[in-house]
Amino acid sequence: MSGRVRLVLVRHGESVWNVEERYQGQADSGLTAAGLEQAEVAAAELLARFGTPDLVVSSDLPRARDTASAYLRHLDLDAELDARLREADIGTWVGRTFTEIAEEYPDDLAAVGRGVDVRRGGGETFAEMRQRVWAALVDAGNMAAGGATVVVFTHGGPIRVAAAAALRLPSPGHLNFAPPVNASLTVIGYAGRQQNNSVVEYNSPTVRAADAARTD
């Protein structure tokens, strides 16, 4: 690879469960009307800032694919779908409200806050999510020539762990990063799996009403 690849990570638009303050994980509740509008605004900003990308990759979950669709309508490109870019697997917590989980699992949430990598709801650890997400981004980066732009539609959790992985912060280094807002942009300068990658931009909102709801 000659030169860095620009990885532009886009969080999906507002979903129904974002509004209802429910954990989503790898389930899906669909974009709200506001989420669909956010996807259109994000598409316009992507086009204005980065022009036509060399590659578009998306999580295969509907809320990410539907956000990508608003962008792809302006391009002669299809998105490569990659299940490794999904949100965290949170097991039995899926669909439960933040309040319910806080009442039933206070010890688990306290442990997460201390940096303990617990299996929330019996799902995967943050380290496991980080490994699969970074592997997907490495593959995307290696598919593109140096100087290329790759736009990646994904979720809040994957964006946080990707930023930590790019800077080679020990897990759970993602806790240093705020949850990305809906339809925000994060830019990683990718030089190679074990190279000096960089976080050029983090959590830049594309819409004023973007919500900093919990990432998963």
UniProtKB/TrEMBL annotation:
Keyword Isomerase: yes
Pfam families associated with the record: His_Phos_1
GO molecular function, one term: phosphoglycerate mutase activity
The protein's Enzyme Commission number: 5.4.2.12
Keywords assigned: Glycolysis, Isomerase
Annotated InterPro entries: His_Pase_superF_clade-1, His_PPase_superfam, PG/BPGM_mutase_AS, PGM_Phosphatase
Domain of life: Bacteria
PANTHER family: BROAD-SPECIFICITY PHOSPHATASE YOR283W-RELATED (PTHR48100), HISTIDINE PHOSPHATASE FAMILY PROTEIN-RELATED (PTHR48100:SF1)
Name the record gives this protein: Phosphoglycerate mutase
Top-level taxonomy: Bacteria, Bacillati, Actinomycetota, Actinomycetes, Streptosporangiales
